[in-house]
Amino acid sequence: MKSSVVKRMVIVSAIIIATLFLGEFIHLSIVEKNNLKVDLQISKLYYFFGFGTLFTYLLLEVGKIFTPNKILMVFIVALTMKMGAFLVLFFGGEMDIDTLSMSTRISIVIPLFLFVIMESILALIVLQQEDK
Prior knowledge:
Distance between the termini: 12 Å
Order of helices and strands: HHHH
Helix content: over 70%
Largest sheet: none
Structural class: mainly alpha
Strand content: under 5%
């Protein structure tokens, strides 16, 4: 791998991890400040989605080297597997989705959208990169 690719991977990984911790801190501060009741541990949500995004990004970068023609398929499979793992790990029988409070639902959606949007932007960047 070229040094520019490795440098980009390190920078993007640092941005993803910083977003994870900053998002978690802001989210927990808002929940605590407003005394909201959340049925899930917010930090687990951020760790799951943050490290899932990091894994997906690294998979895209490495996948582009080995299978450049099928990189979009790699992205779709990684995203689908992550969503399936999320449902199994967080709602695998112990919690009913219909009984969640609105604050819990919003607390799930915020990191989900944050990191899915980040993954989509990173996928576009990886797809548009020209290897020189």
